[in-house]
């Protein structure tokens, strides 16, 4: 702020004016402009890495000490961004948690306007029941529980299981759009089929049922199975090997999960993607308006967030706040570096605030 | 037309007026209204059935007598609606033909603004090469060559192969929107992979490549494989058996082929669907604005078009003109009655002329 | 067609094959390709000019000789393109007619799926009643009667009145999408307000009523008044004079009539525009896929259609078939050259067949 | 929260677990659920009324004490919601301020990703220059400066002028999407035309220039003039008097300002409307998801927000947070009760969180 517009009034008259403003619930713009309207995004949220080796044991301890049931609803432990103290938010818009369900435990049914998904980094044996449709959970699967669908979880095994929950809780809280309703104490269908009815109707490539011709706000597919994600990424790298354009950049394959009724994002507020880097590959440095949460699914490598580089491995989660530059590098060797990502891109894009900046070797440019 | 407005003038003055109209390239509405603007669609096209047992041998004879190559371009024999004499049109908007390619023959590459697909009722061994991407053809596959994509066909076997071509040739001719360009005399890629590159990139359920985020007017999927279509239909009938809503009506499963970038029709002018009736099932009588061509893919049954009922079997093709009521009945027994359909529904719907009328037992209603 | 694929069979076997095709309602592609799929649009419709000096007296004579009433419905005389003999079509898709209503005559109410508009080149005193809303007609006004709205006309004066009707009759006839229903013998509201209720609700720039928040397929505005069209065109030329970009090209102002609920075309099948050329101005030569009908509203000039140049004056109508190049030149002097246009552009664009070619001085290019 | 899930740990082990969570930047859901995901929106923002009689004199005092110029940029004093202490926000998403410009003062040019508008409750004599286009400001006018357009203001008179600024500053701050750039110290065009070039091109009812066929994210109209708004509202009440449906409910006329290229909202994040109540009329009690700011433009009446009723008069501003019920009652007498409104409805609707509840006399229902 220039000296012309001091934060602190320098005359009795101005001091009196500022007092009068305060009493009348008014705030002058000129003392706040820099903070309110920065030249480029200055997120309070910080880039941060959470380690699976830390997360999972803490979740397991909570499994011993805290029951799961009506009232608390879920044994979910949220990533609390160090730059957003006092909240349980990974980013201003996104909530990310590890959820843990012990052997034969049940998380009761409820529904809410918040949109949710689950991503399974390891384990199996839990079924999520969405509006009465049981959806098996296994490593690599991406599951949806869009806003206002009843859902509960139950573990049918003698082993605990943990996974990642992603929701738009912060955004819904911020915009005062939360509705919540309790449902059944137990899940409404205890069947344990390998695939859900939603998949049987909808998860056929390029086909839609004639009984489902109305487009839906969120995807009607309950689970995106690992076998398909893995195959799609493998094919991109194979096509690149054969000389065809199929990847985002050299050695970097990626898919977006979509709503088959529209081709757009799976949820109105959340985008989800899966990225695979060939061993030794590096991404170009880029930054985007909007925030993301990533989880390493397999392999190892480094992620550079702003100017700090982190070694990451399977299960590790990290956050990229708005406009923070990021670069990934896959460790050399034989295995790919696989990462799941979710972001608030639909919010940013539908309201037309999206910008992307990608460094090219000699020519960084704003690709707005 | 009421007697008040005679087609033939009844006075010398009126006769002179009508002569003067004609000389000045003018036509009065009042003598033409009934024909021009009927109370409901009165298509000149007629419901008609073409038999595979007739079609295929004729195609084979043309294979002996007529070469395939530059100039004629394709050995395709079109269904010529008996109500549209002098044309080669199945309906006013749709062209449907059997195309026949002898052992090791090549149909040269070209491109045109007309949108095209192939549907394979039997045989295999031909590859369609679309913009350089070889697409294998096998029984039950549905293949796309959207407008302005170069494409050719080559038979890699010692057997002939035949399939169905569907295009919007009549519509494009009528609207004067045809552009055509010759390409390579031979196909530009003679490889014979089991699946195309387009499928490797795009035919993963609910996923899209990050390298293909621009929506496209037509589907980027080159072939919709039978294995997926068959599974989707089986699942609908199985879900119905389990008590869940999944079918169009009792015993009637159906899918629509879609453009995964939008969830909409595969081509701007052509809708394609596949219908499966459980043995013994009957569809409700319905009529729709717009015309369709159907091919029996498997099983047997009867189709009632307006008031005439036809026994049909594998490979038989039939046409349903606009607003002609149709009912299908699957033969009793063990096997399903499988039918492929294409129509001009995208034309009708995008221009908002769509209406459907479905008979319910006691309550026929206009479901506009 | 190359000699390899003769239209006439040259062997007994081939002759027999062609006979068998015919008997089975089949037509080979290879004898028809050139005509069916030309290298670029080859419309049968011809560029043609109809003179107001001829049209109006003929319409007046029909006013003396032919009644208007139920059965014939309208005293409308259609432009019959010389290239489309036996039809009443201006172009393959568009119908254009002069409608004439004598003093105190009434054209009875009806409705149809065909979309219609009126454009008034001269005169006043008739009200079109659309779904019970009386809409005054005056020189320069553009009025809508979208598909399936009841409408009738009544002349409240002692003078006859004539105007132009534009409809998608040919397109609806071709696609077998016609529905028609008779209504009241007289108009349902004989009031003669200066503006319609639809305008009072909807014709406020940039505003929409909260009671009309559903988007509609066609524009809810019943009449686009000349005062607004004229002002909009004047402003474009004035802005050009002041050095700002506002015109299509130098000296060529133009507006498109729009549906205020979407910003798109007024009718699903018909686009309407108004063009104004500064005295002495010339348009670049351009051609477009799709057909148009133009009427000179004021001033004088020449229109070059393909290679023929016509002098045209107030009231003259002319047709530009698909892909026929056109250039206009305004006569020198003081007055502008004003032209109304309607076309089938929404059909062409919604089905993605649109292409435009505009000549620049040395560099014609395909601006697809 | 049920006793089963205490906020405060009751065992040393649990206490240790919570400590470990905190150290690892983790927060359990079960202690926060009620606050994070309420059963229905529980906005922190409060309904509140600010009086013009208070606001304007304070703005005038700041005009004497605080300069306007580069750095502070604008002499704008924001409504600070009493429920959102420490912020300058009217609601979580919306910023509303009175801006004051003394005689011959200039507010320098800048641009930002934030979307902005001005609404003029009284006065005239200032021009807003938007990307070089001078836009006059007068009582009742609604002016746009969409995101990333350069804009400045200058007062050409010897009188001060004040108006209301509305922006999405809180939303942009929250989502970390702010970009800001300084422009010219003075306005780039000091002309003072009565209407802007944007209006001359775009503010003609139902017409768009052929030079502006690309749809735009925000409205291209720089100012919506009072004369049109007033006429549109008058016509709705007159049509109601004549027995036609034209109003929101009895005696309640309303328009929405729209983007003529799409028919949708003027800005991606902000909806703007104008409401007029007939003297003595009352609105039904309603509540909506999303927040609004209203300003009384003319007349007098009461507004009931939740359970509190306020007398309001010209210039008074009030805030309706999400899901707070509101009812308005126009004072009896001769004059209408006129109110301007803006809201975050585009954010809520594009992300599909919208719900409305309207009380009918005996039958309140959720009209989701």
TrEMBL record, chains A, B, C, D:
CDD domains noted in UniProt: cupin_GDO-like_C, cupin_GDO-like_N
UniProt domain Cupin type-2: residue ranges: 99-165
Signal sequence, renumbered to the chain: none
Coiled coil spans: none
SUPFAM superfamilies named in the record: RmlC-like cupins
MF terms (GO), sorted A to Z: oxidoreductase activity, acting on single donors with incorporation of molecular oxygen, incorporation of two atoms of oxygen
Keyword Metal-binding listed: no
Entry-linked Gene3D superfamilies: Jelly Rolls
Name by which UniProt lists this protein: Cupin domain-containing protein
